[in-house]
Amino acid sequence: MSFLIAQSLINGIILGTLYLLMAIGFTLAFGVMRIVNFAHGEFYMIGAFCALIGVTWLGLPFPVTLALTIAVAILFGALVERVVFRPFRNDELSGMIASLGLAMILQHGALILFGPDPQAFPAIVTGVFKWGSLIVPKSRALALGIGIVILLIFYLFLMHTRHGRALRALVQDQEIAAVFGVRLEIMYALGLGFGVALAAVAGGLMAPLFGVSPFIGATPLLKAFIVVILGGLGSIPGAALAAILLGLIESFTSSFVSASAADIVTFALVIVVLLVRPAGLLGRAET
Amino acid sequence: MHSDLSVRNLVVNYGPVRALHGVSFDVPEGQVAALVGSNGAGKSTILKSICGLLKPIEGEIRVGDKIMSPRPGDPLRHGVALSPEGRRLFGRLSVEENLMMGAYTVRDKAARDQMLDRVFVYFPKLKERRRQMAGSLSGGEQQMCAIGRALMVQPRVLLLDEPSLGIAPIIVAELATIIQEISRDLSMTVLLVEQNAQMALSIAETGVVLETGKVVLTGTGHELLASPEVRAAYLGT
Ligand SMILES: Nc1ncnc2c1ncn2[C@@H]1O[C@H](COP(=O)(O)OP(=O)(O)OP(=O)(O)O)[C@@H](O)[C@H]1O
Ligand SMILES: [Mg+2]
């Protein structure tokens, strides 16, 4: 029993890390540009394909592949911001529709390039870590470790650098940030680029565990949505709390009840939170 | 004495509605000037235009001999800083982070640290609370933080929009003294917008009275305080 609890705890934290990587970019796009980005799941899918191409086609080591994925994703995010989102910033409805269009283009583009079939991803590491009866596959431990390191780096950027501070300030009051010399055009590109990179890294990290296909973006997008609603739209600490909570709830419910019960519990929780705290766990009401 | 901030024939619209009908005035270098007027007279509109947040239809704003272009960030480069109406701090950033946002364009760390020390001398409360979220400060402390944030760029022209708004009278008096001190010590030009005309005109060397988007009176602070029109309209005497 205690073994099952420990196992669920670890799986929950792995899921939570994945959800948080997804949710940060989603909430950042909203916080910075007021865009509800339905294409966010496709960035996860693109990250997974980038990793697949790097590892199997180009034969690069996994860490190098991930680094390249991040670089490509930041550039791609900045491009998407400039070409697709910027005309619609602060226009929530049009921005949402533009992002839906972008999602379709990306997904069908991947379908044309790679076909609909799931592609196997070669194992990066094999074997398991064992502590007594507790078993964690090394591949999961690796994904968790890298995920946490990347989240930490992003946290340090956000909290302790000049541009990170400007990004947080901008989310709260764009006009005043601009008066003090923050260049909004650059920050939009930066915010979206980093958000896309985090989603792409999530895709690259999870590809060896869950495989790759043009359709894998849907679930992570849904989870990012749930996390961001639970945590409060635009709030990164809220997203962190909600992501870990969601991961733990899912993994405990599927271990002790069943996987479909996990979905029911999750959505019940979303409804309850929205009823009791419409702005989310750590969100503020819109003024 | 030549003027440091000069506003010429400023015309600003909100959509089809005209808010400023050709406003002109000058603020001499190193002085405190008060801009007073009732609700909706257009005071904030003038400040927003000066710092590039609104695009005038007509008119010109100069700082020294430079013409400001109507983009936020450009007036800042020429030494204009704003403490906005309602303070508008970054509520979930700490006090120190808010001040550092003021110095966002100051790349020289020594200059930033020196200015931070200065701000803490004027507002010791901010030093005590430097790690606290700005949103959790009292109204008076938030106002100090907003003025401090604007000071961090070492501006040549400091724009203060209603620093007395929603603040206890005793703190207003304290703020008034500090504003005077700042202008004197740093030989800074200050444009002080106020509904509290008594406070503003008593610390200002010059004053401008605005009514529905037009300048109706100008003079020294003392002249305006003594003028019957001002007394009747803004001081209730
Ligand atoms: N964003 C806006 N859109 C439309 N009209 C506006 C806007 N902001 C201000 N106005 C109008 O422009 C006029 C001038 O407003 P402004 O805020 O400059 O006045 P003010 O003198 O600062 O008043 P207060 O003392 O209340 O701050 C008012 O009639 C106001 O209703
Ligand atoms: Mg005003």
Give the arrangement of secondary structure elements.
The complex is a heterodimer of chains A (287) and B (237).
Chain A: H1 2-33, H2 40-57, H3 62-85, H4 92-114, E1 128-131, E2 134-137, H5 138-160, H6 162-172, H7 174-179, H8 184-210, H9 218-231, H10 236-256, H11 259-276
Antiparallel strand pairs in A: 1-2
Chain B: E1 3-14, E2 17-28, E3 32-36, H1 43-50, E4 58-63, E5 66-67, H2 74-77, E6 80-83, H3 95-102, H4 109-122, H5 124-128, H6 139-151, E7 157-161, H7 169-185, E8 189-194, H8 197-203, E9 206-211, E10 214-220, H9 221-226, H10 228-235
Parallel strand pairs in B: 3-8, 3-9, 6-7, 7-8
Antiparallel strand pairs in B: 1-2, 1-4, 4-5, 9-10
The complex binds adenosine-5'-triphosphate and magnesium ion.
Top keywords for this entry?
heterodimer, A: 287 residues, two-stranded antiparallel sheet, B: 237 residues, alpha/beta, 2 domains, binds adenosine-5'-triphosphate, binds magnesium ion
Tally the helices of chain B.
10
> Pairing-aware structural class of the strands and helices of chain A?
mainly alpha
Strand-pairing-aware structural class of chain B: alpha/beta
Instruction: Sketch the topology of chain A as an H/E string, one letter per element.
Output: HHHHEEHHHHHHH
Mean pLDDT of chain A: 91
The residue ranges of chain A in which pLDDT falls below 50 over 5 or more consecutive positions are: none
Strand content of chain A: under 5%
Q: What is the average of the pLDDT values of chain B?
A: 93
For the record, the count of structural domains of chain B works out to 2
Would you write up a description of this structure?
The complex is a heterodimer of chains A (287) and B (237). With 287 residues, chain A is mainly alpha-helical. Chain A has helices at residues 2-33, 40-57, 62-85, 92-114, 138-160, 162-172, 174-179, 184-210, 218-231, 236-256, 259-276, and strands at 128-131, 134-137. In chain A, β1 and β2 form a beta hairpin. Chain B is of the alpha/beta class. Helix content of chain B is 38%, strand content 27%. Chain B has helices spanning 43-50, 74-77, 95-102, 109-122, 124-128, 139-151, 169-185, 197-203, 221-226, 228-235, and strands spanning 3-14, 17-28, 32-36, 58-63, 66-67, 80-83, 157-161, 189-194, 206-211, 214-220. In chain B, β9 and β10 form a beta hairpin. Chain B is globular and about 45 Å long. The site of magnesium ion has 4 residues of chain B, from α1.
